[in-house]
Specification:
394 residues, alpha/beta, Rossmann fold, 7-stranded parallel β-sheet, 18 helices, globular
Length: 394
């Protein structure tokens, strides 16, 4: 008897920026592997970037570099963001998929999700890595809007799961995908060996930017703080992982200008995260990565003064913490220096305290352990992929 042909299914995925492209790539890999085992011929079409393309997705609009921090700063990215969203809408209308996955990238994805629900009422829509509206009560309206068009939310934070459940969403807590990613990185010993870092050398990771605005607002303060640290600890060495090739020339020129003893790592940049004794980092996903790797850190965040004023006085933006490390436990696990507090002097002072005070580091390691336990077990992307593909047999 002839075997039955494989089931053919198409999944549309929408995400944006460097972090979203990474999370999308991890999910695409898991979906492809599970589909093959399940006898499903899976086609994945996406708004995404190079990592998702390498994982096997067909990219119809590149959103990897469409990213900004701040309200005013986002204006320059509105046009390419709208263009990518419109490409996605046209695809959905012309070629309806079997399922839609929205990853992070909240405002554009709300536009895509609402449109998809209006023209494809019977196509399942799932949200993975939902916006962190649960830490900002004024965002309830946006959260309720997301719930209105989403069939299921795959939650990566326990508090996030509770928040969306209270708003009537079907929520599955899957854990955070970075747990898998960090577990797959080389050990500290191997990373240091590959980078040529000796056992007795103190290696500090400087992580200034994955967005252009961060080069402008974060890099100068970070590098000036590194100058001060270097003056106190002359044997220290700084390592900078390159997140985007178009940042290479600017960062190299600033290393020379600030005369810091730093190496820019352009290939296998993740080795810097594994190898570090300490890190000064921008706020974002990388902060959580460092926490999962047990690297002590100081987190900084700055936007333009105009954006800061609008956020404070008009939007009334107020949340307890910015760093995802602190949001997991809702307490200050790592120091956060935000806007006017993120001065070179403050950054250097907090950094030297963590570098030289063993008790402070030990407390951070203990808090990291609690944070890690709250983020679930490994196999996150596999669990999400299983939940998604199960909808094809329901």
């Amino acid at each position: 008897m002839a075997s039955l042909p494989p089931i053919s299914k198409t999944i549309f995925i929408s995400t944006g920026d460097v972090s979203g492209d990474l999370q999308g790539a991890l999910l695409v890999t898991a979906l492809k592997q599970l589909a093959q085992k399940s006898g499903i011929e899976l086609n994945i079409v996406a708004l995404g970037g190079s990592k998702m393309a390498a994982a096997g997705a067909t990219i119809i609009a590149d959103t990897e570099l469409i990213s900004s921090i701040g309200i005013v700063e986002a204006v320059g990215y509105l046009r390419p963001s709208f263009q990518a969203r419109d490409i996605g809408k046209k695809y959905l209308k012309a070629t309806p998929p079997d399922l839609i996955v929205l990853i992070d990238y909240v405002d554009p994805n709300i536009g895509v999700g609402r449109y998809a629900r209006s023209i494809l009422p019977n196509i399942p829509i799932v949200y993975y890595i939902a916006p962190q509206d649960w830490v900002w009560p004024r965002a309830n309206k946006r959260a309720n809007l997301l719930v209105s068009f989403t069939d299921e939310i795959f939650s990566v934070f326990p508090a996030e799961a509770r928040y969306f459940e209270e708003r009537g969403a079907k929520v599955t807590f899957v854990g955070h995908p970075l747990v898998d990613r960090m577990a797959a990185l080389p050990s500290r010993e191997i990373a240091r060996e590959k980078l040529g870092i000796s056992d007795d050398q103190t290696a500090v990771a400087l992580i200034p930017a994955s967005r252009k605005q961060e080069l402008k607002y974060l890099l100068p303060a970070m590098f000036e703080a590194a100058q001060q640290i270097q003056a106190k600890l002359p044997d220290i060495r700084f390592w900078i992982p390159l997140s985007r090739q178009d940042f290479k020339e600017e960062i190299e020129s600033q290393i020379k200008a600030y005369r810091i003893n730093a190496t820019l790592v352009t290939e296998n940049a993740d080795l810097v995260l594994s190898a570090g004794d300490f890190a000064i980092t921008k706020c974002g996903t990388v902060s959580l990565e460092l926490g999962l790797l047990n690297v002590p850190q100081v987190v900084i965040y700055r936007v333009s003064q105009s954006t800061a004023w609008i956020a404070k006085n008009i939007v009334k933006f107020s949340i307890p913490f910015m760093s995802p490390v602190n949001l997991v436990e809702m307490k200050e696990v790592v120091p956060e220096l935000l806007q006017d507090e993120a001065t070179p002097d403050r950054i250097a002072t907090e950094s030297l305290e963590l570098l030289l005070n063993k008790e402070r580091r030990d407390q951070m390691f203990s808090d990291y352990s609690d944070m890690r336990a709250a983020l679930g077990e490994t196999g996150v992307c596999d669990r999400v992929a299983k939940e998604i593909l199960a909808r094809f047999s329901a």
